[in-house]
Design brief:
By secondary structure, the chain is α+β, with helices and mostly antiparallel strands. The protein has a single domain, classed as HPr-like (Histidine-containing Protein, Chain: A, 2-Layer Sandwich), CATH 3.30.1340. The protein contains 3 helices and 4 strands; from the N terminus they run βαββαβα. Strands 1-4-2-3 form a 4-stranded antiparallel beta sheet, with no helix packed on it.
Amino acid sequence: MHTVQIHLNSIDKVKAFVNSVNRFNTEFDLVSGRYIIDAKSIMGIFSLDLSKPMNLNIYNENADDIMESLEPFLITQ
């Protein structure tokens, strides 16, 4: 499992993010505070506080292609 921080602060970013993760046959969870939702669910994402960064759990050991497609949403430290 890999965990990265992402920020989805607009409707367009949420749509693009959901399209990106749905291309992969693996599980993704978004964690915001005490809430954990399926990252492939656009309705679930809109139920979260989008003004704050979230953790994305990726349940795949080989995440190179996934990380490349998620680049626009990642928070770099």
